[in-house]
Amino acid sequence: MVEYSKIEFLAACASSHVRDGENVFGGTGLPLLAALLAKETHARNINLISEAGFIDARPREVPLSVADTRYYLGCSASIGLIETLGFILQAGHVDVGFLGAAQIDEYGNLNTTYIGPYESPKVRLPGSGGGNDIASSAKRLIIIMTHDKRKFVKQLDHLTSPGHLEGPGSREKWSMVGGGPEVVITDMCQMDFDPKTLKIRLMSVHPGYTVQNVLDNVMFDLIIPNDVPTTDEPTQEQIDVMHRLDPHGVYLGKGGS
Amino acid sequence: MVEYSKIEFLAACASSHVRDGENVFGGTGLPLLAALLAKETHARNINLISEAGFIDARPREVPLSVADTRYYLGCSASIGLIETLGFILQAGHVDVGFLGAAQIDEYGNLNTTYIGPYESPKVRLPGSGGGNDIASSAKRLIIIMTHDKRKFVKQLDHLTSPGHLEGPGSREKWSMVGGGPEVVITDMCQMDFDPKTLKIRLMSVHPGYTVQNVLDNVMFDLIIPNDVPTTDEPTQEQIDVMHRLDPHGVYLGKGGS
Amino acid sequence: MVPDGSGLFWGGFGFQRPPIAFASELIRQKKRNLTIYTCGSEVDLEILVGAGVVPRLEIAFVAIEALGLANNMRRRVAEGKVEIEDYSNLAMAMRFLGGALNVPFMPLRSMMGTDMVAKSRYRGDEKLKVIDCPFTGEKICLVPSIQPDFSIIHAQRVDMSGNAQIDGIVGEDLEGSRCGKKLIILAEELVDEEEIRFAPEQTKIPAMYVDHVVITPFAAHPMMCHGYYDYDLEFLQMFHKITRKEETWQEYLDTYILGVENHTAYLDKIGWSRLNKLKAIKPRGY
Amino acid sequence: MVPDGSGLFWGGFGFQRPPIAFASELIRQKKRNLTIYTCGSEVDLEILVGAGVVPRLEIAFVAIEALGLANNMRRRVAEGKVEIEDYSNLAMAMRFLGGALNVPFMPLRSMMGTDMVAKSRYRGDEKLKVIDCPFTGEKICLVPSIQPDFSIIHAQRVDMSGNAQIDGIVGEDLEGSRCGKKLIILAEELVDEEEIRFAPEQTKIPAMYVDHVVITPFAAHPMMCHGYYDYDLEFLQMFHKITRKEETWQEYLDTYILGVENHTAYLDKIGWSRLNKLKAIKPRGY
Fold this sequence. Notes:
Number of helices of chain C: 11
CATH class of the domain at 7-85 and 148-191 and 204-278 in chain C: Alpha Beta
Helix content of chain C: 25-40%
Distance between the termini of chain C: 33 Å
Helix content of chain A: 10-25%
Largest sheet of chain C: 8 strands, mixed
Oligomer: heterotetramer
Order of helices and strands of chain C: EHEEHEEHEHEHEEEEHEHEHHHH
CATH superfamily of chain A: Glutaconate Coenzyme A-transferase
Radius of gyration of chain C: 19 Å
Number of helices of chain A: 7
Low-confidence stretches of chain A: none
CATH class of chain A: Alpha Beta
Largest sheet of chain A: 7 strands, mixed
Number of domains of chain A: 1
Distance between the termini of chain A: 13 Å
């Protein structure tokens, strides 16, 4: 049996949503690990783009920053931010973007800016970065989060990046280039969106968790289909590749598994 | 005595209006020859810019095109059009621009697009190119033309590039970045602009011409000051430098002098 | 590949990297009703409008620069066979930048106060708009972005996957290559992927934008390609002279464009000893 | 050189070429009330807000990316001592592009529908405007251009006249370097003019824009400078840890910033054997 940590499960699961040949926005952290894992396994021909300016990147080690020189080695072009976020992303060339968040609501809207009221924030988070741009313009959005009741909220403290906003028609109202969130992956389950209401819907539950576990950790009414399968486990190859990509355990956590 | 052709006189005269250390938009043709002549004589530290993207150019031979590779050799930066016309020119960094025209009116407005009515033009000229941009945004504009009655007209067939438009306040109305035309140089005379009315005013007459010659070749009321000096002649050094810069006589005409 | 009626961003600037081989091929294939978008082009536009391929252009400039007026263009405009919607160079470059950014317009400070604002050939209200800036209140000119059917770009080298490198000035080709719905690259040579990835900063056009690549040596003749060959001044002067009259232009058209099967045959006709003399000397690049 | 109350475009992106030596010097000179404009910065913003130099920022991002939240920023915001006007990365880059182009605004398709449009920290109506496009009728977001008092850029090399070359990614430094009223360059090394003019395409910032140059080796430590040195991961982790508490941050401030006379003394304190180990290996660049 394959041994894996929660983080490894999450990364492996996220990577399975990347299709070969796609233009993928990498970022850093877990999303980047997922994208790199996909590139090293089932999706060797993805075009990995870092918003800082690297195109078709092939980093040998996992970069710690979107601007890390590790992104440069072997990339086919090294340009700038207007190129990646403007010419590529805003023009609709990005197939998949990855985002994390501190809070998500039932339409997949994301908060990465403030916890607490805007007027007197309790916690300043990183902010949008390229997140809002990616959420606005990537064709598909994969959201990765650790599962926690305080993160799956009915009302965001701050709406940083658009999911499906207020539901059907919302993104069209703002002529958004991208299609919005497609899947939300946590260490507990996978969720997608009900095509009619564009609200979050349970898709599969990870081994060791139940539907009830998920429901206990969501503060809105999660749509539960009749049939909720168990998520596939990572393969040994995936675990090995991740350990090779992140030898210092920066993303995977010290100790690896 | 120095021997020179009309064209050589024109180029030498134009070059005298370039001051050392300035950012100069070169173009091609006579304006470029004038700028290069200045750089080789009294204004060695001008920053010669070609709108195609060359910055601080030091061509050894005269380029035939704003994009000629002759502009590249020894330049300090090679970028693009948005850089030169946008970041540099539109942002107000260009001290002097040179323009020629097929027609000019008494406010220094220029036509480089059509002869004849817009609806059924008799002659298609080159068009604006970067001319309108230069006329809009360069701090000072030096206009170089061969002198001909049909070129100094009361009413342009087409207003391509702004001079002082309709006089005082006109450029301010459109928030123009640059100061507009400062001097008009022909093979017959030099003209500047009356500060009050912003209309063309005779400044000096070239050796061999009279004020009456000039008046006979202008179709609007040219302002004539009480004192009209004779323009300085080119030096032998200037003639020699021009012949070296344009050995094939592309700009100077076959035969040189 | 390019259907009649298409709109094309046309790459190159002045004497540098004009895709003349592509223009000749469009003529041989008897394309009609193409619209050209570019800041300025020279020999390529002359042959395209001379041959009746292009009745409409949105450009800032046409001439053979130092050599003089564009004679074919002058005749075709006087005949009423060609319509030009006039913009300035910066305006066109901003229209391509806006197209590349996928926003509907871009602001600029040129053109105001002139007939380029007052008069329109065929776009009418859609040529541009002068507005009061919502932030500062000052006048500002908005030009509509362009996303044409095709972008045609001439680059120095490409690899198998389509990464294209341009040396020397790029003019408006960065923005222009990204604004078209499809991108066709003419390249002087095919190089190994390793060579591209060794100098990724020279990859002005990443493969992800590229739809088709044609390896075409001397694609710009009689114009120049930085680092590869100089312009053919004698030929250029001959070209400019023959375009003064319709008869001599038609002779040229029959001889150098319609009378040759393809670009290789054109180069053979020009003669390789002549072409080899044009080859660039390093490091000067021409 | 930088008066209290100035606005600064702040160069570098993520771990790459942040002008940290300049931030430390601003702190040593006890500057106050500076406003920072940048897409995102990390250690530099942490020390600037931690030391009370910068009460206002217009940014898209602050964190130590992979390492976690910006602790000093978090504390200062919670204390009400720092205000951030939030934009997205593209929005900030477009604001710099607009400033460089000297137009009052730029259009973009992000931010709409979110609290970045609905809420403003201090710019109010001047934060942005969502309009109906006068050409297409669709919604489009206009962001105001920025032309700050200074642009601060960290480059790999300059020549005596100020031509600055940047290797690797440029982030938003091209636009940022051109948008400021004055431009200060921190460079890792001074090179001969010939070297610059041999590769003019690498001159990302021509001398004509440059007002002041400071030759500052290891200006980005503990972050990286492409082709020159890698980040100092151990130091960075230490830094991130000490910023969690005000007391340990104050100790750091006293030791590594206020307690050293200048950048050279800082480097001596870090130790040259440690710094030399960070030096980049060719051709990988880190």
